[in-house]
Design brief:
The structure is a single chain. This protein has a six-stranded parallel sheet. The chain has a six-stranded mixed sheet with strand order 6-5-4-9-12-13, sandwiched between helices. 35% of the residues lie in helices and 25% in strands. Helix 1 packs parallel to helix 3, helix 11 packs across helix 14 and helix 13 packs across helix 14. A hairpin with a 5-residue loop joins strand 7 and strand 8.
């Protein structure tokens, strides 16, 4: 069987013997078709908001309007979403002072080139765009979150007369789903608030998993943050593997997001048999820019890899590691178990950068050797307790050597696009 996997801005292929393949799991995102174009889907969502007046009506009496926008690590089709949002606002209030606030969370600053790639030259040259800085920005305290952490957000968002957001909805490995409330926390929150929300006890909660909102303490914190910040209106989309909009949801930050999650659920949730070896990816660029982000795809494989089974992750990682503290944590510890023990003993107010990613990565590594196919140098991959491989075929040989036999193989070409549960044996 020839398998085809997204990798960076291109694809990689591999041959796997038919008798070894127990299944190939795709979401149904690419099977969904609409009678409307991408632009029409977004326009129709804006014309028919869920649980809210139209954006132009909300804008009518608002002078200072802020649209929270996703950053360079997210494949949000901002070129399609932002222009109609701007038109809608200016239809209601031609004199509105509009700021596009880039929600970097705790990521690095988005570059000018990345902004142009994201929005297009015209918007970058004509609109006011500011990039959030979780460490060195100016913040306003909004109160205490359900977890007990303090919510501090970017003062530009806090002082808006009308706060709106764009985004996209995909399965998320500990918040249940991306989109909606995540534009505020972690999007434009101070680092201390992000760290509190991503603390060890909340990450360790069994409900802090992909596709789970009910009882998920991380989601509950994020939803509270959006209410406290006054997020009034969102435009969120669902995209397929070609980054094309297949669904659009606009309106109330909670109601529109939940409608989008239900739509996504129908296309992404499935069961699969547990396998000896699971091959997956981080959906290609921009989601596989670094090793840090690649942990997300690994958790999809984790859900359907038998105890002690092997995960083969293909992620180009053209931007390197993606988290200095994440790297040092594993380089400076002998085993993933040592990492986990230290993190679980860290209280909420002592959470450090990248701790949550390290915790989840350690959880994966404690049960599954990970063979990593990437452009990262081999020493870095080994420092992160993984096994480097140049190609998928090489990774399969190494997996067989680790298992001591030719294990069966489950392939998940787009790891981030699936919400998986292991079939009952």
């Amino acid at each position: 069987m020839k398998i085809d996997l997204p990798y960076g801005k291109g694809r990689i292929q591999a041959q796997v013997p038919d008798d070894r393949v127990s299944g190939v799991i795709h979401s149904r995102l690419d099977d969904w078709t609409s009678e409307f174009s991408e632009e029409e889907l977004i326009d129709r969502a804006l014309l028919n908001p869920i649980g809210s007046p139209r954006l132009k009506d909300l804008a009518r009496d608002a002078r200072n309007i802020v649209i929270i926008c996703s950053d360079h690590t997210r494949p949000v089709p901002s070129k399609r979403i932002i222009p109609p949002m701007l038109r809608e606002i200016r239809d209601g209030n031609p004199e509105a002072d509009i700021t596009l606030l880039i929600a970097t969370g705790c990521h690095r600053e988005t570059t000018k080139a990345e902004l142009v790639e994201k929005f297009g030259e015209e918007i970058v040259s004509k609109e006011k765009i500011l990039v959030h800085d979780c460490l060195n920005g100016s913040f306003v305290s909004m109160g205490t979150l359900p977890s007990g952490g303090e919510l501090k957000i970017n003062e530009i968002a806090a002082n808006a007369d009308l706060l709106a957001a764009e985004g996209f909805i995909e399965p998320h490995f500990f918040a249940g789903y991306s989109g909606g409330r995540k534009s505020v926390l972690p999007g434009v929150a101070a680092a201390v608030s992000v760290w509190g929300n991503h603390c060890s006890s909340l990450i360790a909660d069994p409900n802090s998993r992909c596709g789970v909102l009910d009882g998920n303490p991380i989601h509950e914190d994020m939803a509270a943050a959006a209410r406290m910040a006054g997020l009034k209106f969102i435009v969120n989309v669902v995209i397929n593997s070609e980054k094309e909009v297949i669904g659009a949801f606009a309106g109330d930050g909670r109601d529109a997001h939940l409608a989008g999650c239900r739509f996504l659920d129908e296309l992404c949730r499935s069961e699969a048999p547990k396998a000896d070896i699971v091959i997956t990816t981080n959906n290609g660029y921009p989601l596989d820019q670094n090793i840090y982000q690649a942990v997300k795809g690994m958790t999809t494989a984790e859900a359907v890899c038998r105890p002690g089974g092997i995960i083969i992750m293909a992620a180009e990682c053209g931007d390197g590691i993606g988290g200095d503290e994440f790297y040092r944590t594993f380089k400076n510890h002998f085993t993933a178990g040592d990492v986990m023990k230290e993190i679980l003993n860290t209280p909420q107010d002592k959470t450090v950068p990248d701790q949550w990613q390290s915790q989840i990565f350690a959880r994966v590594l404690m049960d599954h050797p990970v063979i990593f196919v990437s452009s990262a140098d081999e020493e870095t991959v080994r420092d992160l307790h993984m096994i480097p491989a140049a190609r998928i075929e090489d990774a399969l040989k190494k997996a067989d050597e680790l298992l001591g036999y030719r294990g069966n193989v489950l392939v998940i070409p787009e790891g981030i696009s699936n919400i998986l549960r292991a079939e009952e044996s």
